[in-house]
Design the sequence.
């Protein structure tokens, strides 16, 4: 019955989303790739220039620094966020009082936008650095980098925690019971039963944190703005900077070309990671 | 499948109906309309009022949208890509024009160009007049005269850089006795505010170098006057209300607030600050003095010029271009327009029909010029890029905090100029 109705009315359900996807994602994406081969100031007047934008990506010497910093940032933030989120999820699936309150509180930072968080944390961290007599965020690349790690962790641990909690709740109770009957201690239960059983959650979480780390923009812009001298500039901000901070129409296309390269890198890394973690997943 | 097709057809119909209504609306606007993307947030309110007055008088719809501070280029880029693009926009001078010259309507022969007091206020690209300056502004060091007198000095005592330095040092040494926190309000180096130093103060070494070399633009700055730049900046950060290490987190708003609260005697900024400062101070308590640079102090006036050029979008429809030209000409010639620009916005406009502005700092600029001083022209419009300014700003911030050396400022200034000029070419 339901199947028949769906067969009849599928366009009503599918078309709005499909249209939104095309208008909001597919079309701009195709345009974006085309623009990377063009010289332009606004998207209504463009001149095709071929691959010359790609040849000029390294021209201003900022791309490779931003790239390696982003790699370091993405890996470090993913590890910290996932480990912390998993530990908190473990703690909050033990039947202790007030778990729901804690879950809500840990999740809340996620509801605030990155730009706002960036400015709030800038004030907070600068206050701490000042009282420690340390150089402020905009003056020290190391402080800026760790500031971004702290900020992103604070923001995302709650979200990943929810995913891990859902995974842990789905570990069948009889499996754990059977393990205990067989004499497994709590470490063995954790590493031999729980972690293998929640590999799908690990896959999702590492995927999200890695790509989020690579794509991070707002927090970078508002917390450090790339200071000092672009030393804390991640890739997304580098692209934005190329696009807007330079004079002359040629830079828009170069920024666009950087963005396409950036996209390819993120896709390759995300796919590699997906393949790696999905292979570790087990069937119940 | 039939159902699917009928859904598609009705969707297509709905879309075409919408398009139909849109077409009727634009037919009604045959008389043209004006869409002004305004650069100056502080003048937004006045522009909205003036636009409404124009619509009331002529029936031509004028919408004014103001970009957030520091976001003009980004806003302009996205707005210009739309089908309903701004008909009137701004560029900041020759470097800004490089991005937009393909979008500028040639103003040669238009009424507004005919009303300019001097050809120098027309921004040219080859033979074409791409923009007209619509406001002349001055900046210098704003002085709280009441506090200065309390410290035992008169405005006339400040005759040059050395005098300024000794007075500032003295005020700084006696700050507790005088009830101030420092001689200069904090030199806020937050990215939103460091333009006071990376652009405005940096204009002086460029001005003197151009003057010495007899040029008005260059691909390679030599930095001959950077020692003077250092001396002035050192003065700002040592005789200051706060530690150099804190400056990276301070904004121009913090700085203005300190000055308005009488916690500092000196404050580097421009004539656009008059409207907000005059809420706190009477004209008798305020003055603007030149940023003495230790080069030619007897003859140096305020830094006076413009980075505000109106450009008309050549992609707009003929009616809209005409409506826009009429609007800007009305702004600078009609009674209502010139009154609003002089009084509400506090502008001095370079047009023969201008009214006198009550802006104290602007009047002082005229007095300095009348007394035989030479105004310092605005050469920062020739700085090679935003990128260059950011590099200098970042190096200055690090220098002020003690995490960087002055050599890095010099290198950002000189080497940065050459590399950015090469990249822009």
Sequence:
């Amino acid at each position: 019955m339901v199947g028949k109705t769906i067969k009849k009315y599928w366009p009503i359900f599918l078309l709005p989303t499909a249209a939104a996807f095309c208008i909001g994602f597919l079309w701009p994406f195709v345009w974006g790739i085309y623009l990377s081969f063009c010289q332009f100031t606004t998207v209504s007047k463009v001149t095709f220039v071929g691959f010359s934008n790609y040849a000029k990506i390294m021209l201003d010497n900022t791309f490779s620094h931003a790239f390696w910093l982003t790699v370091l940032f993405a890996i470090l933030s993913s590890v910290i966020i996932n480990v912390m989120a998993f530990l908190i999820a473990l703690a909050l699936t033990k039947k202790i009082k007030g778990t729901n309150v804690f879950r809500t509180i840990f999740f809340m930072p996620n509801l605030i936008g990155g730009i706002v968080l960036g400015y709030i944390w800038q004030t907070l961290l600068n206050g701490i650095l000042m009282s420690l007599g340390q150089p402020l965020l905009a003056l020290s690349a190391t402080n800026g980098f760790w500031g971004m790690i702290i900020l992103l962790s604070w923001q995302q641990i709650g979200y990943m925690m929810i995913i891990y909690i859902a995974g842990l709740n789905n570990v069948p109770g009889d499996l754990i019971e059977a393990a205990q009957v067989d004499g497994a201690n709590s470490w063995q239960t954790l590493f031999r039963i729980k972690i293998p059983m929640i590999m799908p959650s690990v896959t999702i979480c590492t995927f999200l944190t890695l790509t989020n780390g690579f794509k991070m923009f707002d927090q970078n812009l508002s917390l450090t703005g790339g200071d000092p001298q672009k030393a804390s500039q991640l890739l997304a901000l580098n692209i934005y900077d190329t696009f807007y901070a330079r004079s002359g129409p040629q830079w828009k296309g170069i920024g666009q070309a950087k963005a396409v390269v950036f996209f390819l890198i993120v896709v390759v890394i995300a796919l590699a990671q997906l393949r790696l973690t999905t292979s570790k997943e087990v069937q119940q | 499948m039939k159902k699917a097709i009928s859904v598609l057809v009705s969707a297509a119909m709905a879309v075409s109906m919408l398009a139909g209504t849109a077409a009727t609306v634009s037919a009604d606007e045959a008389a043209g309309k004006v869409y002004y993307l305004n650069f100056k947030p502080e003048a937004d309110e006045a522009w909205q009022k003036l636009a409404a007055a124009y619509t009331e008088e002529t029936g031509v719809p004028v919408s004014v949208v103001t970009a957030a501070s520091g976001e003009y280029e980004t806003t302009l880029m996205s707005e210009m890509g739309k089908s309903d693009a701004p008909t009137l926009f701004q560029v900041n001078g020759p470097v800004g024009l490089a991005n937009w010259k393909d979008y500028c309507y040639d103003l040669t022969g238009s009424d507004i160009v005919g009303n300019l007091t001097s050809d120098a206020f027309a921004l040219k690209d080859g033979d074409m007049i791409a923009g007209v300056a619509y406001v002349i502004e001055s900046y210098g060091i704003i002085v709280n005269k009441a506090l200065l007198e309390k410290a035992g000095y008169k405005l006339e005592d400040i005759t040059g850089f050395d005098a300024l330095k000794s007075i500032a040092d003295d005020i700084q040494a006696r700050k507790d006795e005088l009830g101030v926190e420092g001689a200069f309000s904090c030199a806020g180096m937050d990215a939103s505010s460091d333009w006071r130093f990376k652009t405005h103060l940096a204009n002086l070494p460029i001005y003197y170098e151009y003057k010495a070399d007899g040029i008005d633009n260059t691909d390679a700055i030599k930095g001959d006057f950077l020692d003077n730049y250092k001396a002035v900046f050192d003065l700002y950060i040592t005789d200051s209300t706060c530690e150099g290490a804190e400056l990276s987190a301070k904004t121009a708003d913090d700085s203005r607030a300190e000055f308005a609260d009488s916690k500092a005697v000196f404050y580097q900024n421009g004539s656009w600050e008059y409207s907000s400062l005059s809420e706190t101070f009477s004209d008798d308590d305020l003055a603007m003095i030149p940023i003495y640079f230790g080069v030619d102090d007897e003859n140096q006036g305020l830094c006076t010029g413009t980075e505000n050029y109106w450009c008309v979008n050549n992609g707009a429809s003929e009616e809209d271009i005409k409506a826009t030209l009429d609007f800007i000409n009305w702004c600078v010639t009609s009674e209502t327009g010139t009154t609003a620009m002089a009084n509400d916005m506090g502008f001095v406009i370079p047009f023969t029909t201008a009214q006198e502005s009550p802006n104290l700092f602007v009047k002082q600029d005229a007095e300095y010029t009348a007394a035989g001083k030479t105004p310092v022209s605005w050469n920062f419009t020739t700085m090679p890029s935003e990128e260059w300014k950011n590099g200098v700003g970042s190096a200055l911030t690090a220098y002020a905090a003690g995490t960087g050396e002055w050599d890095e400022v010099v290198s950002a200034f000189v080497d940065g100029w050459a590399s950015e000029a090469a990249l822009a070419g």
Residues 5 and 197 of chain A are 37 Å apart (CA to CA). Chain A has a mean pLDDT of 88. Chain A has two domains: 2-52, 54-278.
